[in-house]
Amino acid sequence: MWDQLPLILCLTISCVCFADADVKCELQHNGNNEQFPKEFSFGVSTAAYQIEGAWNEDGKGPSIWDNYTHMHPERIADHSNGDNAAESYHRFAQDLVALKELKVGFYRFSISWSRLLPKADTTVKNQKAIDYYNMVIDKLLENNIEPMVTMFHYDMPDGLMKFGGFTNDIVIKYFRFYADILFETFGDRVKKWITFNEPFDYCLPGYGSAYFPPMIHAPGVADYICMDNLLKAHASAYRLYKAKYFHSQRGKVGITISSRFYYPKNNDAEEVVDRGLQYSLGWLAHPIFGKSGNYPYKVIEDITSNSMREGLAWSRLRPFNFYWSKIIKGSGDFLGLNYYTSRYVEIADPPLGENPSWERDSRLKYSVDKNWKRAKSNWLFCAPKGLEDLLKWIRDNYNNVEVYITENGWSDNGELNDADRIDYLKAHLQAVLNAVNDGCKVTYYSHWSLIDNFEWNRGFTEKFGLYYVNMTSKNKERVAKNSAHYYRSVIESRKISSSDNFV
Ligand code: BGC
């Protein structure tokens, strides 16, 4: 969903149209073990707003995505919204059939904050929402599928926007309250918690470029405040779990961060690779998994000097004080990683983007390789080696922290014979296996997505599902694509099987 980054990023990418049929999407095995380790788990992911529908039923309150799609249909490619989507709120039984067919070990789904707490504040706790998520969790467990729950996947309760959403640090308290209810209500059965999905992709488009709700246009300032509060909210929920629930529940709490890997455009410029990574993954991972308990040094230094040059009295990026550094540092039992694609990078001279903005602070220019196959989404190119290299970078920079790949996927028009998705899946599983063979502690892989769903500003025009959903049919049947059959064969054999019989 990197199309959500400000338009400028797209403009700086050398334009490549759909790659021709000869362009391959593959990766070679590194010669070691051919089987995934016994304890390695395969799964699939979804998110509440993208699949649940029932946007105003059974006491659910509005989220910023409900209001945004209703007020600005013109901003969604097909003028659609998530009011009904795949109707998973009413059709979880159908999702379960698909999950069982796939034989996944776990299912990553998100809880809608405004379904549980319709007013966002502490006054109403919606029992119908509790019943629904209890049903989902219990059904999964009955079928030996481990629930992995994301607490926040972009759908902020609208009530919190009345006082600034993630730019007001009161949000830390609200999120902690919400997390407390989740742990207390579901924690006896849910043992894997992801506080936030992709803070970067929520804060930059939401509070920087205004490409996404809540459409606040204050780049280089409000988006940084959003990430700051979000990291604090994450760490507060993590500490709450450790203090109040861990001794009885014994689960793990982490965060999901998205990142590409970066390759130097000019061979002599290795440091731009590091720069690219510090300005994306590192911004969020460094405070939690790094040694300093703060943003990457380079990022703090650049933004401080840019702010001084702009005549500001203080930096647009507030480094964490001692109190917060202590709380944030180490506040992750695992790093959730969403990987879709990679880029080449070079220093942008002169810098690009609005002044101020993340583009300008990071001073990077991105491009792609003409040998990378392109998906339906204009930002998504097949670069599996990038996943392998990113996992090794994490191993080397964050003390080989345990990594769960919480998303990885390919978009098309929804064809049942989805040979390109199979190639993508196969190549990326190979990247994971190569990394595992090279000592990276990757223990979960989740494909995005179980079913076709509402793809944010792209509406229903880009499909990521292993299962096709006819959004206009009455029963919204889930139909297995060829990629679903292929994924199941890998899960069963725990080996990257040949894809010949599946196309
Ligand atoms: C997001 C998903 C989205 C996917 C494809 C991910 O970054 O978490 O919600 O559907 O990208 O754009």
User: Which strand order does the major sheet show?
Assistant: 1-2-3-4-5-7-10-11
In the CATH hierarchy, the architecture is Alpha-Beta Barrel
Question: Which homologous superfamily in CATH is the superfamily?
Answer: Glycosidases
Q: What is the β-strand count?
A: 13
Our measurement of the CA-to-CA distance between the termini, rounded to an integer number of angstroms, reads 27 Å
The low-confidence parts are 2-19
Provide an overview of this structure.
The chain has 503 residues and is an alpha/beta fold. The chain has a single domain (2-498), classed as TIM Barrel. Helices cover 39% and strands 13% of the residues. It has helices at 7-12, 48-51, 64-71, 88-102, 113-116, 127-142, 170-186, 199-207, 222-249, 270-278, 281-289, 297-309, 322-328, 358-362, 384-397, 419-437, 482-493; strands at residues 41-45, 106-110, 146-152, 192-197, 252-258, 262-264, 335-338, 343-347, 364-367, 403-407, 442-448, 467-469, 478-480. Strands 1-2-3-4-5-7-10-11 form an eight-stranded parallel β-barrel, surrounded by five helices. Strands 6-8-9 form a three-stranded mixed β-sheet. A hairpin with an 8-residue loop joins strand 12 (467-469) and strand 13 (478-480). The longest helix is centred in the middle third of the chain and has 28 residues, at 222-249. Mean pLDDT is 95; it is low at 2-19. The structure holds beta-D-glucopyranose (BGC). Beta-D-glucopyranose (BGC) binds at residues 1, 47, 50, 197-198, 201, 258, 338, 407, 448, 455, 464. The site of beta-D-glucopyranose (BGC) has 12 residues, from loops.
